[in-house]
Amino acid sequence: MSPKFLGIVSLLALFVASSAQAEPRKKGRGKGRSTKTDSSMTMVAPPSSLFDPPPVAPTPPPDLKPSPPPPESAPSADSPPDADADRPRISLLPLVLVGVEPRWEGRVFRQSEGMQRDLRRYGALGYPSVALTADLYPLANLKSKFLRGFGVTLQFSRAFGFESDSARLAAFEESRTPPVDTSFMRYAVGLRYRIHTNPESETPLVLGISASLRRWAFAFAPELPLGPDLEVPTADYQLGRFGFDAGLEVRKVTFYAAAYYLHAFSVAAPNTRKLDTATHPYLANAPAMGGEFRGAVGVRLAPWIELRLSVEYAITAFHLKALQEGDPPDRVLDSYLSAGLGPYVNF
């Protein structure tokens, strides 16, 4: 064979061999690509946000506002007439009130005859006394507001441990009498009706109206001679008292005020004189008349006790028949002033 032919045959053999090696590589590449493609298709998933449903907005909480109260129905005939009966009582509306006051008092007796003013004058100032007070409201727990206001009042006061010594006790001469024991006693029993004017207020105001029977008894010891030449300013008055009072509570401080009219039913004239009720008659021909005024300030130490400072003034007026017929009657003014400080307990 010629060398040219052998060269062509070798080139063909190389070409066939190279083609046989290239075909399995292509198959391997094709499998790898398809596998890669299949793996990519199975492993890579689309984002979940594309198929998830849109988020739902949270439900707002329900409205917790209280529902309006039902409309009040008209009170029936069987219901109580007032709805504040179950409220706790304030200090100005106690069921029971008890007070004890040490007092300092003064009494002045002035007698004028004709044109001579203060012809006879007696004065006892600064003597000690003690005053007791008790108020009871037995209907305070009833449902009826009208009946809850009624109450009973009791008062007692007595001076002790003082003597009288006055040069003006003599009727016709300036003679000094020796000191004698003296007593002054007052007591009363009555009814009172109270009204709570502003139940909804934080500063309660309570008004009261009262009527009572009272007695003043001013006497000297038996050793004082009561002869015709000595006119002694004794006092024995039986009085009716009518008036109004008020109490205003501001936090722990309470203010009290009262004004009364005194109407005498009986007056015992001094030992040597007689009453004159015809020349100058008083209201309804009373033998005497006058007035009484009170003021006090109380500080509440506890819900059930109060320390009270009080002042009391009372005056009565009456006439005595003249010593000589035809002369104008004598005028008498009898008054006392009393100040005290003591505890008041309420329930």
Concise overview:
This protein is mainly β. It contains 2 helices and 11 strands. It is rod-shaped and about 200 Å long.
Folded structure, characterized:
With 347 residues, the protein is mainly β. It has one domain (84-346): Lipocalin, CATH 2.40.128.100. The chain is built from two helices and eleven strands. The chain has helices at 3-43, 145-148, and strands at residues 96-113, 116-136, 150-159, 162-164, 180-196, 205-220, 235-250, 253-267, 288-302, 305-320, 330-346. Strands 1-2-3-5-6-7-8-9-10-11 form a ten-stranded antiparallel beta barrel. The radius of gyration is 54 Å and the shape is rod-shaped. It starts with a helix and ends with a strand.
Uncertain runs with pLDDT below 50, 5 residues or more?
26-44, 74-80, 170-174
The best one-word shape is rod-shaped
Tell me the number of helical segments per DSSP (H or I, 4 or more residues long).
2
Order of helices and strands: HEEHEEEEEEEEE
Q: CA-to-CA gap between the ends? A: 152 Å
Instruction: Write down the CATH class.
Output: Mainly Beta
Beta strands, count: 11
* Domain count: 1
Q: Could you tell me the strand content as a percent range?
A: over 45%
Strand order of the largest sheet: 1-2-3-5-6-7-8-9-10-11
The main pleated sheet reads as: 10 strands, antiparallel, barrel
The CATH homologous superfamily is called: OPCA outer membrane adhesin/invasin
Overall average residue pLDDT: 78
Please name the CATH architecture: Beta Barrel
Cα radius of gyration in angstroms: 54 Å
**Helix vs. strand class:** mainly beta
Task: Tell me the CATH topology.
Answer: Lipocalin
**What percent of residues adopt helix (DSSP H or I)?**
10-25%
